[in-house]
From TrEMBL, chains A, B:
Gene3D superfamilies attached to this UniProt entry: 3.40.50.2300, lambda repressor-like DNA-binding domains (1.10.260.40)
Domain of life: Bacteria
Domain (HTH lacI-type) ranges: 2-55
Keywords noted in UniProt: DNA-binding, Repressor, Transcription, Transcription regulation
Name of the protein this chain belongs to: LacI family transcriptional regulator
SMART domains: HTH_LACI (SM00354)
PANTHER family recorded: HTH-TYPE TRANSCRIPTIONAL REPRESSOR PURR-RELATED, LACI-RELATED TRANSCRIPTIONAL REPRESSOR
Molecular-function GO terms, alphabetical: DNA-binding transcription factor activity; transcription cis-regulatory region binding
DNA sequence: AGCCTAAATGAAATCGATTTCAGGGTCAAG
DNA sequence: CTTGACCCTGAAATCGATTTCATTTAGGCT
């Protein structure tokens, strides 16, 4: 309720002086003290809306993610939050549910609330960021890269290779792959790594894509794809699953068919969330979610502080 | 970049008229059309900051939760989001990490950004909501009840009873309980239900609290508590765990000791997240997270629309 | 003592919307 | 033909901070 005008009146100074006190601009010790006392008495909380309107930018950064129920993204969010908090920014989390329309709506909100910047794991490769960039709002794409803007990702192809090689070394022959939606860069990259390894195997006289399934990065999708693979005349003896949730689904399918790993081999890109199974049997390619978030926030904050290097494309190593 | 003044100039009308067009106030069809065309050409996005400043309230509701990495709270968040979106509100998610100080900081942000209202799963029972309520911002406490404000919870005592009874019916004798931090209402309620059942059992000639452990609602806490219980001279033969994450930790401990349920009985308050284990062995008391979120959002929105009934305390039934 | 520089302060403009108030136009009833 | 009622419309005030610009004050140096 109390405004800087009230505080100013009570302290016997001008509103400008009150503003200066709260922004660390030199004010005589004696006045400064009077202002603080007055603010305290009125339990004054500065109105950020007015501040944002005048400064044309808030201290809030938006983090837009496609699935808030996926522990990968919440871990990433924790990373963003930690770094942002340390620099005095608040983070607001927006969940698009992999829906391009919801995403577009949130992007409008970002512009229209004058948020400082945005970290985006895009639901659609076709996001329109012109409203943002035209207004000079920095954008960092995380996990899923986007053209034109800074990007923080992992090496999906290498991860796919590592996972598949691990299965090969465990002696599996017919290695399937369950990946994400077609056209999604993370999904394609991981499948590419898998295919690459299989093609270079001497024994690969069959078309690997027979064992390739595109699903939706969700538990049910992984489950359905695994069931489908198990119903083949010659089912695979191992599977590389391209994300954590689909791995959960696939694992459930295997358990239902009494094929608990390592009866059938499994490798997952990203840790299995809250796994209670003993880790024997499932090979996990670590996906440093929190680090991704931290790096993205770091980069965004540098941009907010005026860094104008050319476009950065950071690729985090998989700490194999 | 474009403001209503630019749009007004291009359309040859006053800024007031532009505002009216975007707020559904009657404007002649012909002018309205000119305004829309102009806005389109300038790709005008209304500045919500200015709007909020003038209206003294934004269309954003804050959801403050203690642990964004707990699937229970993300499911709850989904419920809030769905209902809020449908009424035209955006949701911003704030993670307090069970830290009262972070929580207080976010509450200040809520005030200072003129957010419309707030849904709170409080980290501390001692939250100070006077700044909010004095300014007439509605507050709904969810999952964890608070005095003075509207509240949406489940019946914790009944849940604890049901879980414990289920273990009794499965023939277990020495039933332990791992609950949350002392003083947290949800933790105490669930433990009370457990104790109640044990006290009424004829065979309960021993003090049940010998088998009671207070942990932190997190995976590691559940694990440590379970290990501790297993190291007792006469370890329990079953355990009721008061939340999903601690259940994961306890389950891991049991598996490590080759006591996978049902070798040792287990009941969990709330679904095990992403369980890959076959459900045999672990009794689950369902916790309707999403429904909690929906109900809380529903109630908050009614308050925002002027509902002034006395304080509501909604208790969702456990769909046993 | 006098002059110059630098620091501290306040008045007023500004950010971009909403909303009150008053004026002007249209139409129907008397 | 006049009067009133009602609907559109625009001018201007308003929300609460920040910031420019001009002015005052203090202090240092010769």
């Amino acid at each position: 309720m109390a405004t800087i005008y009230d505080v100013a009146a009570l302290a016997g100074v001008s509103p400008a002086t009150v503003s200066r006190v709260f922004n660390g601009i030199t004010v005589s010790a004696e006045r400064s003290e009077r202002v603080r006392a007055a603010a305290e008495r009125l339990s004054f909380i500065p109105n950020r809306t007015a501040r944002t309107l005048r400064k044309q930018s808030s201290e809030v950064i938006a983090l837009i993610i496609p699935d808030i129920e996926n522990p990968f993204f919440t871990a990433l969010a924790r990373g963003v939050e930690d770094v942002a908090q340390a620099s005095g920014y608040s983070v607001v989390l927006c969940n698009t549910d992999e829906d391009a329309e919801k995403e577009a709506r949130y992007l409008d909100v970002v512009v229209s609330e004058n948020m400082a910047g945005i970290i985006l794991a895009a639901a659609s490769d076709l996001v329109n960021l012109t409203d943002l960039t035209r207004r000079g709002r920095p954008v960092v794409a995380v996990d899923r890269s986007l053209p034109e803007v800074d990007t923080v990702t992992v090496d999906n192809v290498a991860g796919g290779r590592d996972a598949t090689r691990a299965l090969v070394e465990q002696g599996f022959q017919r290695i399937a792959c369950i990946t994400g939606p077609t056209g999604r860069t993370t999904a394609e990259g991981r499948a590419d790594g898998w295919r690459e390894v299989l093609m270079t195997m001497s024994a690969a006289h069959v078309d690997p894509d027979r064992y390739l399934r595109y699903a939706d990065f969700r538990v049910e999708g992984g489950h359905a794809a695994m069931v489908d693979l198990l119903n083949l005349p010659e089912p695979p003896d191992a599977v590389f699953v391209a994300n954590n949730l689909m791995a959960v689904g696939a694992l459930r399918a295997l358990i239902e068919h009494d094929l608990t790993p390592p009866l059938v081999g499994m490798a997952s890109f990203g840790d299995l969330p809250f796994a209670t199974l003993s880790p024997r049997g499932v090979t996990v390619i670590p996906l440093p979610a929190r680090l991704l978030g931290e790096a993205a926030a770091q980069l965004l904050i540098e941009r907010l502080q005026g860094d104008d290097r050319p476009r950065q494309a950071i690729r985090l190593g998989n700490p194999a």
